[in-house]
Known about the structure:
The structure is a homotrimer of 676-residue chains. Chain A has 676 residues and is α/β, with parallel strands linked by helices. Chains A, B, C: GO terms for molecular function: beta-galactosidase activity; metal ion binding.
Amino acid sequence: MIESSKVHKILYGGDYNPEQWPEEIWKEDMRLFKLAHIDVVTLNVFSWAALQPDEITYDFSKLDKIMEYVKENGLKVCFATSTGAHPAWMARKYPDILRVEHNGMKRKFGARHNSCPNSPTYRKYSVALAAKLAERYKDYDNIVAWHISNEYGGECYCENCEKAFRVWLHKKYGTLDELNRVWNTSFWGHTFYDWDDVVLPDMRSEEFNWDGIRTNFQGISLDYRRFNSDSILDCYKLERDAVKEYTPDIPVTTNLMGFYPSLDYQKWAKEMDFISWDSYPSFGAETENNAMAHDLMRGLKGGKPFALMEQTPSVSNWHTYCALKRPGVMRLYSYQAAAHGADTIMFFQMRRSIGACEKYHGAVIDHVGNENTRVFREITALGEELTELSDTLLGARTPAEVAVVFDWDNWWATVLSAGPSRCINYYEEIYQYYKALLNLHIPMDFVGVDDDLSGYKVVMAPMLYMCKDGYDEKIRSFVKAGGTFLTSYFSGYVEDHDLVITGGYPGRLRDILGIWVEESDAIPAGDAGMKHTFAYKDVTYPAEVLCDLSHTEGAETLATYDNDFYAGMPVLTCNTFGSGKACYVATRSNQDFYRTFLTDIMKEAGVEPLAEGSDKVEITLRENKNGSFLFLLNPTDESQEVTLKKAGTDLLGGMTYQAGEKVVLPAKAVAIVQSR
Amino acid sequence: MIESSKVHKILYGGDYNPEQWPEEIWKEDMRLFKLAHIDVVTLNVFSWAALQPDEITYDFSKLDKIMEYVKENGLKVCFATSTGAHPAWMARKYPDILRVEHNGMKRKFGARHNSCPNSPTYRKYSVALAAKLAERYKDYDNIVAWHISNEYGGECYCENCEKAFRVWLHKKYGTLDELNRVWNTSFWGHTFYDWDDVVLPDMRSEEFNWDGIRTNFQGISLDYRRFNSDSILDCYKLERDAVKEYTPDIPVTTNLMGFYPSLDYQKWAKEMDFISWDSYPSFGAETENNAMAHDLMRGLKGGKPFALMEQTPSVSNWHTYCALKRPGVMRLYSYQAAAHGADTIMFFQMRRSIGACEKYHGAVIDHVGNENTRVFREITALGEELTELSDTLLGARTPAEVAVVFDWDNWWATVLSAGPSRCINYYEEIYQYYKALLNLHIPMDFVGVDDDLSGYKVVMAPMLYMCKDGYDEKIRSFVKAGGTFLTSYFSGYVEDHDLVITGGYPGRLRDILGIWVEESDAIPAGDAGMKHTFAYKDVTYPAEVLCDLSHTEGAETLATYDNDFYAGMPVLTCNTFGSGKACYVATRSNQDFYRTFLTDIMKEAGVEPLAEGSDKVEITLRENKNGSFLFLLNPTDESQEVTLKKAGTDLLGGMTYQAGEKVVLPAKAVAIVQSR
Amino acid sequence: MIESSKVHKILYGGDYNPEQWPEEIWKEDMRLFKLAHIDVVTLNVFSWAALQPDEITYDFSKLDKIMEYVKENGLKVCFATSTGAHPAWMARKYPDILRVEHNGMKRKFGARHNSCPNSPTYRKYSVALAAKLAERYKDYDNIVAWHISNEYGGECYCENCEKAFRVWLHKKYGTLDELNRVWNTSFWGHTFYDWDDVVLPDMRSEEFNWDGIRTNFQGISLDYRRFNSDSILDCYKLERDAVKEYTPDIPVTTNLMGFYPSLDYQKWAKEMDFISWDSYPSFGAETENNAMAHDLMRGLKGGKPFALMEQTPSVSNWHTYCALKRPGVMRLYSYQAAAHGADTIMFFQMRRSIGACEKYHGAVIDHVGNENTRVFREITALGEELTELSDTLLGARTPAEVAVVFDWDNWWATVLSAGPSRCINYYEEIYQYYKALLNLHIPMDFVGVDDDLSGYKVVMAPMLYMCKDGYDEKIRSFVKAGGTFLTSYFSGYVEDHDLVITGGYPGRLRDILGIWVEESDAIPAGDAGMKHTFAYKDVTYPAEVLCDLSHTEGAETLATYDNDFYAGMPVLTCNTFGSGKACYVATRSNQDFYRTFLTDIMKEAGVEPLAEGSDKVEITLRENKNGSFLFLLNPTDESQEVTLKKAGTDLLGGMTYQAGEKVVLPAKAVAIVQSR
């Protein structure tokens, strides 16, 4: 959310590139923006080459014009620093800005997100540009936010990065002895006797491709990922500091990308004034995936509203099949963002470019160039609604009694693990629990391992493979104090450096869970000859991916395996620990199971659903001084019903409902029921 | 066709490599060639290393012997210049002749087609060799054609090519401003301020692999393809000019490869005296694919007869499964070439080599080394037939009232497009219409965008995505004058540089077609949940790949979608325009539809089929001063029937037929019915 | 088998890495080893970095301690030289030790098996280390074997290898004329005029990836494989000679890997005192695959007992799905090794490491660190059995009347062949015949082409594509003398350099087999439309992969094709030749066929099965001065029965059986019936 004294409604707009068009088109743009109730534009995302034609020259003349023009036309500006793609001359003159790929291939000029984060040239000139922009435009009071660079990401394996990696390691570990210890280099005789012995883990050294990228040394590969995320974060921080010098009051963000594996957004969020992100769900993907990404983004800053920085109004251009967003779907996705905490709704892009790879990406203004399109009409209708909503929803928070732990280090560690199965998938595991919660209409927060747990009744940390130093103690305290903790197979194995906690799995969680996991059996995917099951409350469910062979050490067994030599061993346990309890799901099952089991868990923990009714309706709650807002979204193609617990009025349709009354939601419909 | 005063029958022979064998084998070769009625051999295809053992020495002694020997034995010669593979010493001494791959990998010596087209060394020594050959052998009156190099193709991404690309661009665009305009470099801040900023589009810069090769900048990638085709063409032209100096009257060709994506053969054909090509249909491929390639090749030089330079008599060696050509199939394919315009039938290869990768490729003389093989017997039988046909068919043309537009630039642009679907496939789209025509027994010509349309009744240009400057006007005139024009979805979007024509699709074709395409929906392949259909004359057909959402602007709607939110929108339209009409097929359908629809289109346009009867029989017509020749080919394994319109005599079987009489064609049978 | 005066029972132990653990753990290790009856450990596999911290320093202090400690604890030592992975400092200082990959990518430090075999640095320092170890520890009388390096393998394409390749070629071929002849370089004008023209065959030169790696020049690629195997073998020999200088009486081995394609183990075996190998069957793989690998390993040294150097007690870490070895399976696999000739049973690894890529690989001592695991209990039980078996089985040989030819050169040549089918698979072809024999309970030996055939009644050489100079004569003599020879399609095509033997396939085997193969038809895999069959003794069997079209020249036709244009042509022939006969199977069929046909062949040749009963039980025979030992293994999950021919006593269960009595084997059970 672009939190600012200048903002009095849900901002509505998108990426605008007038520099790609002759000025006579700008006027038409303004006419169309007004028609569609657009009030904010992201400017200057890819103008570095235009602003700095050579090493010593800066030319802001066109940007001056654009800034004046949009200001005159009453538009707010989300102001980008243009450093998402470096100029061609810079690549020619200073090849250190060019990245090296995972296979050692040195890049040439081209593409975007193309700068080495440890390039001295990149750092010098990106910061210089950000500073110049801030200095020059600091007095534009319609600038509502800084948009640093664009969709940061990727990796680089160049020599500069290698040298920086050694410095980063030296700073982190102090001595080679400690480095050798945490990386367990006595294995395969990898002992380093000099910092310069360390090389980056890539296809030339420790990583290789064998049904996906693998590594010989998890510790090295894990630290590289941390280092790379930090390196790019440093680039962000340098630009942020540069603009803050001139405009300390303009909030700063950069557009994130949901569950993006390369960057530890939880670390990044600490450096951002507010979260913004770009949402591009694939056609046909379950809407719960997108909901989960919204919740992750909201959780990065403890529930503070965020901005939907980009979404397509109609199609994307890069999918295998670029299917159209059906009528109503753009609106549905826009309100889904709001339902999960967004206070800003923006598009990529305002006007379709005529050349290069995004010319068939959807836009507010299509190639036909006028307002007479289905897409424009839908955008206009939503613009009207948002205008009517005014500031009602601004700043609303989403209360939750359930927390789900998500941790980037753990994600990396699970992906990098050699064994027990290539089907180990942290995202999928989290998603199974998330989806069940959402369909049960139970609100949740994503938390990182640094976040406080004390406000929650239930904490779920499926596949907490890496239980970092001290985190077990945080869980221990939480459970002792009466909380309900839940985790699943492949948890508690390692500490922060992916070194195994010896003495029996799940390591530091063993006493809390009251179990010992002796072995784990990988279940081949799709192998008809090896169907494993278990029964919970007389219903049989599948056991997939991994089956732990465990022994209870105080925990109660709720279900056991039906098959194989481990038939009868526990698959589902709960351990009373202090005033709380700790449950363990020793395998992957299906949604039927997760919904049943979580229903029981929540009931016992005293967590209630937001409403009763169709599990296909997405329901969330937000609250601010104007009251509480129950969002009801129907992503299906059929009508759905939900029974309200409280009376209220639909902000969109105007209907008023009594407590206990049914809301009927037609296909793709949205309701925001305000109660006071 | 090797058009020469020296040629009095369909030439029959193939690639002959006596230099791989001791001389005592040559005598046996001659005996076997005579048995098989072989009268032409392609010599000297891969002898560069033998002819030029080092930088200053040339040694023609063995070639002298070979040339004398084949002349004594009454054989004509298709004389290759040997530059299809450079010598090893040259690669060691001058690495500039070695190509760089798409990923930046510099090649070493090996393989063939291995020379960088912009290598100064390659150009210098390839031309020198061609000149020396021409000078030395110019008086051999049995040389019927020059065969420059061999199967030109591939790409190079070396520094020399990069520099040459900049020169090529400078020459084409004059200024950097114009370059920046046509490549739309304001997108992603790619503006070039110096010609040296330009780098080749490859994996290191703008291209990447994501369900196939993609590019960030269509304009750059498109121009690279043009440049690369031109670069290789320059190599061809340099050799051609060198031999023409000594032998101005010997026609010059190089062996093409049908629908070969890397080279713009329409541009190449202008520099060739006659077209020759190598045909290697896969086992199990529809014979219409091969027919289409023959027609494309014939169309390159306005219908002039061409040479089938290579085909295998039995098996190829590189397919995944090298299945045998069944009995009769080699003969069938040979006559298929003739049916579509070939006056020369040649094989790769005359004698199977004993080592390296083509030793299991079929040959006239197998490893067993004698005439007692099925394959040799079939070759001999065909040789006898061709001898009996004498000069009857020579020079015959194939009259047609239907033209199908094929354009290499359009092919490249569609392949490179980011969106709307990776199933966009120009070849496949053309093939659907082509196959329907062929099965309807309607003759056609392939035309390029430079070719005249005035002689045709119907012009079909499916998926004319790139409608080049002025080409709309050519179509406009054609239709106004009474012609029937037909195109399909994904047409008219861009001009020559892949820049979108704004104002509404299909751009410059909008007035001609009388429609506006507002959106296009990509249909996921094989998605059972998303079957789209439409009905034409009460029969339901599938709508696949892409469904345009369009509005008529004067055109008549012939069919509408059955499904989805665009049910009722037009899928098939025809617009009366001037004295003609312009039809549009807004989606991909199936053969049943194309056959039905084209039957109606042709009937209305007054285009008649060559004969009635089985749609599985391939029927073509050729005409010369000896009369008209109706080719009937039955590629199936069952007997088929065709009813003749005119009386005539089968040149092969000797049977005489009356008009209206049925020809019965057994499996794999061929008839050539001559009428006068 | 570790044959030594120091060995009096089947050695039992595995890889032990105490250097990865604090010394206080060592004591616990010893306690647990004793519990489990462990008596041998492989030490020092990956300690190079520890032993040689820089170029001039060697530090054996920790190894001294370890050696003392294990000696004190009564353990024997399999002593590794630690050269399987070079130290990081060496890679930094001497990049020549780093390999270059197939695509030209130069490696950096990382992984293992990472040294260029032609690196002067590697050779210098690996030999130096081996010598130092031998000198220092030569008086330890508990060293039972040298374990040189570790799992040698892989390829290198660096400049040093390229230069060494030229030297190797020069030595082998003497002249460039001969090199050009054997590589058939007149093809594609590849003639070499200087040894330095030769480059390594890789992605940069002659090889490419097209449904797998292919090559343009089979001769070059074949010689590269020979050269690479020899280069690595040279490394082994240098180390072996270094240790032999100090410890001439300690047998030397290196751990092989079964059917490992990169190294010609038949050539290697000549340099090894005994064979040892690492066996890691995939979960779900047929146990016959592993049995075949054991037999191949035993065959390398003419039947001499070998060592199972590594197997996992429970799981591996690198499989896609690391399923657990079920209860009894580790024991079953251990006895399978013994059944096929092993006198040593060892594990990787003794204690699970806590970091890096093998931390989830199974171990005797798991991360829990104690004896209370299923796996440890199974290991202990086996340890007890092996202790009880004492020296009873030591040195026992496996008599056989059937030989199966396996030849690495032939393997390489078939893999590299361009045509006739990518389904040509030498391993699979051999496996079909092997599996049928094993299931028929007929013992066999693998022989190489240098091995004597005279002791066998039947010699089988399926897919003997490369019939080397003189090998036809060996077969000819064998058959003339009354032997039965059997081969299959794609045999006899080429000589040692992959040059075709002209005059008709199967070349030099034509007279022996009494057939001429005119053509071969590749059968597309899984093509329902092309099912080929033949009938043998009234039962119909499939004909797959390749169907030869052959003519008998004296042979008797036993079966003919049912389909296609070659229906009626022979598919199964036997030729009486001298006092013996030679049979030919012209296609690939299924196990039903192979079992039926081999039953007939064996009956006629007078070869008898070891026992009657379930074909699912694996049965082998070993003999020494203590009697004969019939091994019976039941890998299935059901009980199986076998009828004994001789009376005897089960060494494991203690049961005594009469001749003709049934042995009932429960699931996973093993019996060793001793008869005298």
